[in-house]
Write a structure and sequence with these properties.
mainly alpha; cytoplasm; cytoskeleton; 134 residues
Amino acid sequence: DRADLRRRVRDMEQKLQRERQDHRDLSHQYKTMQTELTNKVKKLEQEVSQLKEDLLSQEELSKEKSERKQEEQEKDVIIADLRQKLDNMSDYEKILHETLDSLSSQLSATRQGWEDESATLHQKYKELLSEFGL
């Protein structure tokens, strides 16, 4: 019976040693898995954070593009309006040049008439003065 009990005690001690070793192995595996999961969680949190920043950047870029497009359209409207005004000014410029040319021609004709009349009057008064001996 003693030998049987010793054998059973030895078997139980060996079983206890195996259980302790299994426990150590499982504890080590648990710690390794926990560390891996913690690292994975940190990595995923960083990835989520980066994706949020990217999303915000894309939204800001989209908003900026939209604003620039609107500004461009507003500037195009202003440019079209200014071109229309410039075309109108060109028409007015032509009218003004024609009017000034006409006025200049009329002034030249009137001036020539005055010069002729002035020369006639000058000659007439010169003759009158000559008659009076002056």
